[in-house]
Backbone:
């Protein structure tokens, strides 16, 4: 009976983070800009083919007679080496960018959070083993591991996503371990334990849900960071393959002509920059809300 | 103190060992035949078989790994498939170029970032604070490769102010050649009084260094700001004010030291960032350093080169963390290891 | 009659936040004579710390002085430029805080910090400065001057740190020492030592003390006169002996009854004052204590009581003070 009560007990409310966020966003112009950017990005990702003026070119169909045209009212972002409308290319590049990021962050959380929560809750041997493994992964200079994996597997968006997910999960494991360690001392967890509730249920019902706020904040920021990482990999040739409208790939393609046809690299790169900026601006506000000491 | 260093290095050795296993496994994941790549496109089956045996690629994996580790510990880091020269030699030959670039970038980033952070914290919630916050968030969001390209267009093509690529004007090799003493062009030209070359090298360093410094400036400024704000809110600041100390003394002597403690960690992070950030900057500026070597190696599946670079990079990372810890213990007497 | 050293008149402090304005101090007046120890007592949030901070202009950024006057030796302190305030802080007026461990910067040695204080006010030659510091350290009972000066805060005990803080505050021979809960964070035995130290120093050097605390026992042991604060207003002021013998304000009486006495164990329930402090006393038109007062009448709800005299040097802010109505 008491066991059912404990099991039915809701996780400690997350202090209405979403509500506080909504209120705070309106007051902060920087964060508001970030939200606008993210919304635009999502719109581009979801409705790209319907918004882009030349969706077929965006997908890769060439139009060679119109190649290398500078920005103009007909082609606000100019055209590329194969005559494709850059604006369409950039708009439709939103989908692969967002898709990869969500996939990477989702995978990283899926692997990292349970492992980290387990390590932080159980302590002892389990903790030591899992932490040694994360230390190993985190000892690689950033992106180097991902680059090596993609090099080994061959270029391609899926390989890049896998490589990035493998590089990213240790951060979430670390984060989840930290929150789990502090949560296990809290009274409602002790109460559940004393009632004989199994570890798995405690993890699932109490530890993980209460760890989510900082993890979700990190995930939000990371979506931007992954867009940048995936774009960087693509720039080097370790990401998508043509004709995918991948922003990093477009910057690389335009590099040969950068001095005279600057628009080939400028706009896709701008897209990456603005996307990352948007997530960082929003992430900043979220960090502010999480920080109890008001040091920001 | 030495005991601490030794203990840390020993612990890191274990990590490096694990890394070598991972990297080795990855290299062997390569679907294509490394022997075939080694020889080139005109490989005949007999040649492939011969090279496979010659490179020891037909022996079981653990044996290969042990052989490789034994070789590495004696200084034989394999031979680059791309350049056919010893990997270690390639790495050491290109190291000065990369180090010079990273050093220049850090020399720009650290003072700039810290000063911006102090400015931002001292004028909190007023215009300078907003400006610095925008600068720093832009800095950490900028893709380095994109920034590099834009700077090239602006300063080379449009303004004709700075050179496009490379470490030095190739023509100078005949008129004012730089002596090969350390491999650091700035040092070498300064030591020999070769001021023409010195100026030229500096000019060539400007854009790449700024490109590499953008992210660190952003990160360091943010951390310094947050850290200063926290330090300024501490009780000892109120006590210092109550004792009549001037704001200038409080900001620049009293709280700066406290604020810099977390900043050292961030500086370590930015150094780690530049280990791979330099790849992108070097590619954009055709900088003859480790970055271009690494990227070429990755794209051409030159696994000895990739393994060498990875382990070298990881060792560098370990060294950076060690130095960061030492600096922190010097700054913060509470964590002193004496 | 000599001019009081410190004279606070009708001081009002407000907190301004985006969510609104609340009142921290609502017309506080008190005086400290030359060489007098005045204790300010009240529960957490009554504004006693605010009073101390106001004297030195150290209010938090969200607070501002709404009205009132603070005079040190006849000189008005409110509104003077920061530069002049700074020359007073640490030299004419010294301040000691509650938590000695956090009042010192953890990454500098004690000696460095004390020299900084001295250097901010007096141009002494290095030798003279060292001598002054060592003399002051000896005065507060810290004999191993070498070790203390070289040490970092985390290497010293709480009691030693508090003595060092007192030494810091007395370096420039102030006329007034403001002590904000100086013993609250200390063990009882150390507390007794520090209180004795403050009394001795006060007798030797003749400075006045504004002693802020929530502990009635400490107030009784150390002060000459007591000011009782409630919700940002003065409830009662009296010489120490008088206050403890015959308190007139119902709040003061309630405070004294609420203190558990040794030996009273098991005899009757613990007395406590029902209700809680008003959230924003600026909104209260009548007596701030009316809601919780056992002898309140209608007048108490509508009319704010002045401080009326009930004896020699004894005033109380209660409509029923001096009328003999038992609480």
Residues:
């Amino acid at each position: 009976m008491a066991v059912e009560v404990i099991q039915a007990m809701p996780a400690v409310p997350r202090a209405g983070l979403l509500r506080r966020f909504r209120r705070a966003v309106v007051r902060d112009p920087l964060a508001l800009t970030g939200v606008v950017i993210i919304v635009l990005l999502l719109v581009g990702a979801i409705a790209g083919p319907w918004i882009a003026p030349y969706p077929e070119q965006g997908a890769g169909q060439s139009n060679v007679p119109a190649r290398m045209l500078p920005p103009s009212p007909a082609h606000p972002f100019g055209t590329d080496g194969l005559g494709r409308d850059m604006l369409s290319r950039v708009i439709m590049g939103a989908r692969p960018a967002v898709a990869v990021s969500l996939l990477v962050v989702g995978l990283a959380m899926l692997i990292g959070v349970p492992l980290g929560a387990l390590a932080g809750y159980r302590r002892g041997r389990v903790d030591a083993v899992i932490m040694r493994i994360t230390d190993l992964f985190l000892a690689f200079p950033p992106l180097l591991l991902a680059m090596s994996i993609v090099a080994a597997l061959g270029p391609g968006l899926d390989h890049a996503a896998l490589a990035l997910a493998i590089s990213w999960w240790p951060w979430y494991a670390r984060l989840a371990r930290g929150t789990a360690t502090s949560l296990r001392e809290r009274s409602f967890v002790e109460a559940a334990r004393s009632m004989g509730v199994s570890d798995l249920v405690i993890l699932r019902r109490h530890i993980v849900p209460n760890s989510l706020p900082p993890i979700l904040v990190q995930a939000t920021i990371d979506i931007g960071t992954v867009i940048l990482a995936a774009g960087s990999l693509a720039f080097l040739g370790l990401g998508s393959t043509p004709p995918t409208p991948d922003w990093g790939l477009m910057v690389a393609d335009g590099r040969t002509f950068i001095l005279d046809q600057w628009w080939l690299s400028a706009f896709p790169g701008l897209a990456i920059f603005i996307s990352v900026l948007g997530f960082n601006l929003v992430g900043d506000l979220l960090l502010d809300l999480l920080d109890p000491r008001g040091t920001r | 103190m030495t005991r601490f260093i030794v203990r840390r290095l020993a612990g890191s050795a274990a990590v490096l060992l694990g890394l070598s296993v991972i990297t080795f496994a990855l290299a062997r994941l390569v679907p294509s035949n490394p022997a075939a790549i080694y020889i080139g496109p005109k490989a005949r089956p007999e040649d492939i078989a011969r090279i496979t045996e010659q490179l020891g690629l037909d022996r079981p994996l653990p044996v290969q790994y042990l052989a490789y580790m034994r070789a590495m510990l004696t200084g034989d880091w394999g031979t680059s498939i791309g350049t056919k020269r010893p990997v270690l030699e390639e790495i050491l030959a290109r190291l000065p170029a990369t180090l010079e670039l990273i050093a220049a970038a850090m020399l720009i980033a650290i003072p700039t970032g810290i000063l911006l952070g102090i400015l931002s914290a001292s004028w909190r919630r007023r215009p300078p604070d907003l400006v610095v916050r925008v600068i720093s968030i832009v800095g950490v969001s900028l893709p380095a490769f994109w920034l590099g390209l834009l700077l090239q267009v602006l300063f080379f093509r449009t303004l004709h102010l700075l050179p496009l690529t490379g470490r030095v004007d190739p023509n100078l090799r005949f008129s004012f050649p730089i002596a090969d003493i350390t491999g650091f062009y700035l040092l070498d030209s300064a030591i020999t009084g070769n001021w023409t070359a010195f100026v030229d090298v500096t000019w060539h360093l400007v854009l790449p260094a700024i490109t590499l410094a953008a992210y660190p400036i952003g990160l360091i400024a943010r951390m310094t700001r947050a850290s200063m704000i926290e330090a300024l809110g501490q009780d000892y600041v109120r006590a210092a004010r109550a004792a009549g100390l001037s704001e200038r003394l409080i900001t620049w002597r009293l709280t700066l030291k406290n604020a810099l403690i977390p900043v050292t960690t961030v500086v370590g992070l930015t150094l780690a960032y530049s280990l791979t950030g330099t790849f992108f900057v070097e590619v954009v500026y055709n900088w003859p350093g480790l970055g271009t070597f690494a990227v070429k190696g990755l794209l051409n599946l030159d696994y000895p080169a990739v393994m060498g670079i990875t382990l070298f990079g990881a060792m560098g990372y370990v060294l950076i963390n060690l130095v960061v810890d030492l600096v922190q213990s010097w700054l913060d007497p509470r964590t002193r290891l004496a | 009659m000599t001019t009081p050293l410190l004279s606070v008149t009708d001081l009002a402090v407000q907190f301004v936040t985006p969510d609104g304005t609340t009142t921290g101090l609502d017309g506080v007046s008190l005086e400290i004579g030359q060489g007098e120890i005045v204790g300010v007592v009240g529960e957490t949030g009554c504004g006693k710390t605010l009073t101390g901070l106001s004297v030195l202009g150290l209010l938090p950024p969200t607070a501002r002085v709404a009205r009132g006057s603070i005079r040190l030796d006849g000189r008005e302190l409110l509104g003077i430029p920061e530069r002049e305030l700074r020359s007073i802080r640490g030299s004419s007026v010294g301040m000691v805080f509650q938590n000695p461990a956090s009042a010192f910067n953890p990454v500098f040695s004690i000696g460095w910090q004390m020299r900084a204080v001295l250097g901010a006010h007096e141009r002494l030659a290095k030798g003279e400065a060292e001598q002054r510091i060592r003399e002051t350290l000896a005065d507060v009972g810290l004999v191993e001057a070498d070790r203390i000066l070289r040490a970092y805060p985390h290497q010293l005990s709480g009691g030693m740190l508090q003595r060092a803080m007192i030494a810091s505050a007395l370096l420039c021979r102030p006329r007034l020492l403001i002590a904000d809960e100086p013993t609250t964070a200390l063990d009882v035995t150390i507390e007794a030592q520090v209180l004795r130290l403050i009394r001795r120093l006060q007798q030797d050097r003749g400075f006045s003390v504004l002693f802020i605390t929530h502990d009635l026992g400490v107030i009784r042991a150390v002060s000459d006169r007591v000011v009782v604060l409630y919700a940002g207003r003065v409830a009662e002021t009296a010489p120490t002996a008088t206050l403890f013998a015959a308190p007139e304000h119902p709040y003061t009486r309630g405070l004294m009854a609420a203190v558990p006495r040794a030996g009273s164990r098991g005899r009757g329930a613990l007395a406590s004052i029902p209700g809680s402090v008003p959230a924003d006393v600026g909104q209260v038109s009548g007596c701030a204590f009316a809601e919780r007062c056992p002898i309140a009448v209608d007048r108490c709800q509508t009319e704010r009581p002045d401080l009326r005299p009930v004896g020699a040097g004894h005033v109380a802010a209660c409509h029923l003070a001096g009328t003999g109505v038992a609480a």
Chain B has a mean pLDDT of 83.
